[in-house]
Amino acid sequence: MSGLSATPDGGPGGPLTFAVGLGQIRPVRRIPGGTLTAWKPLHRILAVTLFLPLLAVAAPPAPAAKPAPAAARKPVQRPSRQYTMEQFMGTTEVTDPVFASDEKRVLFSSNATGIYNVASVPVTGGKPTALTHSKTDSVRLVGAFPRDHRFLFERDQGGNEQTHVFVRTPDGKEQDLTPLKKGVAHFIGFSQDESAFYVVTNERDEGAMDVYRHDAKTYARTLLFQNDKGFAVAGVAPDESWVVMNESLTTSDGNVWRYDVATKTLKNLTPHQGSASYRVADIDPVSGELYLLTDDGSEFTRLVRQSKETGKLEEVEKADWDIFATTFSRTGAWRVTALNVDGGTEVRLHDVKAGTQVALPQLPEGVVSDLVFARGEKRLAFLHEGDRSSPNLYVYDLTTKKATRLTNTMGKALDSEDLVESQVVRFKSFDGLEIPNLLFKPHQATAEKKAPALVWVHGGPGGQTRKGYVNFIQYLVNRGYVVLGINNRGSTGYGKAFHKADDQKHGKEPLLDVVEARKYLASLPYVDGSRVGIIGGSYGGYMVLAALTFHPDSFEAGVDAFGISNWLRTLKGMPPEWGAFRQAMFQEVGDPEKQEAMLKEISPLFHAQRIKKPLLVIQGANDPRVPQAESDEIVAAVKKNGVPVEYLLLPDEGHGFKKKKNEVLVNERALEFFDRYLKPATAATPTP
């Protein structure tokens, strides 16, 4: 089976995916590596969002009504019903859909029990059935066996990202296929003939992910590729004659390499002059031709193909926005492409045999993620969501043009009419550069009743604030806060020049964009410009700390979730399995050995005496990307200033929050903090 599970690339994701990394497409599954993105659970950051127009939708309950275009919508100036965080958390997250071997069911990951487990649901609809029952560590589905009812899942320990690959048999027995004493393992896909599957591990060398071939029946494994260069493995040829990898020279410059299994030789397939990004999109399952994504010679990323006959790169697809993913169905009958269009995504579905693009009519505004084809190529599964509607699982019949909704994930207590649709807005920064954003305006905010506001900074470097449902943003807006999700310079999705504009400038120009965002909010007639805060996670958390440190009068309060306070320590301590990507991060942010003075200059910890506004810091104790010391030390330093500082340490989380109970705790604590410093003492009480 094959599908689309990548995300817009851009920033330090290392060999993993999303906003800071190399997006991977099924059957090439997510590869271990890093990213400094996160606030909501990591899977929602790692999944790509894309518009998928549907022809017909069969109930369960109908999705939210189609909103009018942003320019045409009339503002609704009425008080919306207020909800508690527990009511918002009645919403279930679903992700990672995979068809069962008989294509009668779809398997997926779900946090319906408060923690992620694997479940299944019939393709015709019905009540989901739980297949795993973990109560401690999240279980994430990664693959289903194509010829029987076994499936593969990954699990770490308390968010430490030291994942192992497990198999579950129909009788409920689970077996760790990668019982490593130390290191990580990730599933990356089944072989084309379905007799085997591939797993990468760093058990031999903690800085390199080797590829192992596992027999699908016995699980016996053989080493297919010893990855001495520490490249990011991106795929295996249909005939297993070669392995293809992504090399990150910088976060905006990279090559694609091929390893020949027979001769044990490596070849750079994309030598080029200057800075240009090359990375693997997919492999044609019939011809074996390699499809790549590149911005070499263009402002936006386009799709090219390496000719099997000549070896030359041929143009396949391009647009005035970045193409960030393409993938084939199992025999290559279909190919689907995703474009990053102004904070949302547009999809192009291609009938490969006919050589035509299948025209699909536009439907209600929304985004789709985790699109996956069935083996028989007559169905595809996907998740669909909107700003006001949580992701739901659908199955789309490519023959009848009918999509069936299989889940109803929205919290029963929530009325989507009380929630808010985002609007794409732009403002000019200090130097005239136009900065794109998503703006969420509370229903009750008016010129007569001005609201406090928050600048929401995404992770990265790179990354992007994108359309889609986020419980916490809707909670904040529902409680009366205007939220501006900024895409400061350096963000993905707005062309090569915009993406590279933050290189070696962190804590400076990109931070000034965030400061200007406060000025933009203050210019809005319904915003109280004297009550503006800032919030962000990971790299966004760094931006919070940097804003309060280097521009101490710009915001009235800040919430930092696992943000970097000391770049020297974080860069030196990057997880070893990121391999060659570590050097790319040094090029993006700074080399801790050669640029110590510069990195100290932009690290809030060394200037914490300048912080004078209230700060809330949130940290997962098991975070392997931004270690707990980053938060411990900035909290201790700010306390010396006599400034109100609060610290919430979660002992059972890592880089992002995977347990519902912790999400409730974090989100409520953040709201209480902002209410204390940005609202009058008489805050409204939520209606039960």
**How large is the share of residues in beta strands?**
25-35%
Reported for the largest beta sheet, the result is: 8 strands, mixed
Radius of gyration: 24 Å
Calculate the mean pLDDT score and round it: 86
Shape: globular
Keywords: Acetylation, Hydrolase, Protease, Serine protease
Domain Peptidase S9A N-terminal: 144-404
Organism: Corallococcus soli
Pfam family, one: Peptidase_S9_N
Give an overview of the whole structure.
The protein is an alpha+beta fold and 688 residues long. It contains 11 helices and 38 strands. The strands form 8 sheets. Strands 31-32-34-33-35-36-37-38 form an 8-stranded mixed beta sheet, sandwiched between helices. Strands 1-27-28-29-30-2 form a 6-stranded mixed beta sheet, with no helix packed on it. Strands 3-4-5-6 form a 4-stranded antiparallel beta sheet, with no helix packed on it. Strand 31 (423-428) and strand 32 form a beta hairpin. The radius of gyration is 24 Å and the shape is globular. The protein starts with a strand and ends in a 10-residue tail after the last helix. The model is unreliable at 5-76 and 682-688 (pLDDT under 50).
